[in-house]
Design goal:
Length: 142
């Protein structure tokens, strides 16, 4: 894992993923009425952030077996001239060992809000799963 020092970490992602097991048509962008947004409590007049998370069961279907793998989506909306360096992590137990699924990248900002998705693939035999969302603000390009 990289040595970036993040400005903040959100711990409620577990509860959001557990709450929203989505089965709709548009898995990467479900309607806001079905998967609700959470406003980041650290937002300011110049840096706004809201986010939502959900899971989709049965991804990577294999004809010869029943697949229990699932995807976990984190969608962030940055309302700022700045951008956000994001690390979305899933920590889980598999075969008695700790495993990580990690997605890192930039969520670019826009004064009216710009959305970015981060997706983790979690094996169906994973246990004791927990998720974290960490962010570090950086100046946007001019």
């Amino acid at each position: 894992m990289s040595a970036i020092t993040f400005d903040f970490s959100l711990k409620d992602v577990d509860a959001l993923v557990d709450k929203y097991d989505y089965e709709g048509q548009n898995e990467s962008n479900p309607p806001s009425e079905e998967i609700l947004w959470t406003d980041w409590s650290g937002g300011t007049a110049t840096r706004g952030l809201r986010y939502r998370a959900w899971r989709i069961d049965g991804v990577n279907d294999d004809i010869d077996k029943t697949n229990t793998d699932f995807s976990v989506y984190l969608q962030v909306e940055v309302s700022s001239k700045d951008k956000l360096d994001v690390r979305f992590t899933g920590l889980f137990q598999k075969d008695g060992e700790d495993w990580y699924a990690i997605r890192e990248g930039w969520a670019l900002g826009n004064l009216y809000g710009r959305r970015t998705n981060f997706v983790l693939l979690i094996p169906g035999n994973a246990a004791q799963i927990s998720y974290t969302f960490e962010g570090k603000w950086a100046r946007g390009s001019k």
